[in-house]
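Recall that a protein's primary structure is simply its ordered list of amino acids. Everything else, from secondary elements to tertiary packing, is in principle encoded there. The following example makes that idea concrete.
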Amino acid sequence: MNREIVGIQYLRGLAALAVVLDHAAATVATHLGEPILGGKLYAGAVGVDLFFLISGFIITVVSLDSDWQPKVKVGAFFRKRFVRIVPVMWVAILSYGALRIVGLGGIDPVPYLRALVLSPVGLMEPLHIWTLRHEFIFYAVFALTMLGPRWLRPFLVVWCLLPIVGALGEFPEIIEKLAWPTNVEFAAGVLLGLLYLKRPAEIRLPGGAFAISVALVTGLVVAAATFGHAFHLLSSTALMALICAPILAFGVYVQGPTFEPGRRLGDASYALYLFHPHILGAGAFLIRGLPIPPLLAFAGLVVACVAGGLAAHYWLERPLLSLFKRRTTPPPSTPNP
């Protein structure tokens, strides 16, 4: 993907915001005892499902050419994924642990160590890092199957279908993680990416693409609240994948004039996702001691999370990316005289 697809940026930002709404609503309910909108906003967790489809799409289109042949070597693929994901993730994990030590007086370091190395098994802290565990499982499977010898490609299909096996009974934890239902969401993103590589044409709108994206993601949250949402159930995850797929297709193919705030929210989506628990944790201490209406507390927490996510993106994530890119990019080769 040699250019930015702005619709994807909109959806990334809105997916992160949906997760923030979920967690902010849970924070208010826990500390003020009143669920926001009757707990319906907990369905904002479906933003993670949309993230997984987006990831499958992006990894496909940046790694393969229009003939579905690799345009990046496996080593370079993992180097770029490491630089993009891991350094700022380490900062988020360590800083969250430090805040917990200050707030609680101590922590169990083992879940944090698991998170730092994205262990495929065991409880991790902060809890939301579990999604990055599955991201890297997907990266490994994609790289070995789609960027390696062609005869390995059917194993990507096998991995995508493993949740069917996982739903049949109890298995060791490592098998459960490899067969997690969200595999089907990565698969849906990959399929759309393969289609886009063959048919990259777009539909142009005179305006309103961001507003439509907001409406679609809102509808996704409503659908999750209506039908139920559970990452560990194949039926629920497959349904969310079916609903997310046309939303992703809209973001990919329907483009309009750029709405800059929406694009910037998308740019900051990873930082927003990583650091919003820090802000909610600090906010929880504040709202417990204030006579504040729950809805106002909720709105304040969401605004603080978005502002903190943008700050983390511009002042932390971008400098770290620049630093690690310089350190990990091989120097250009010079011809022999």
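The chain has one domain: 6-327. The first strand starts at residue 203 and ends at 204.
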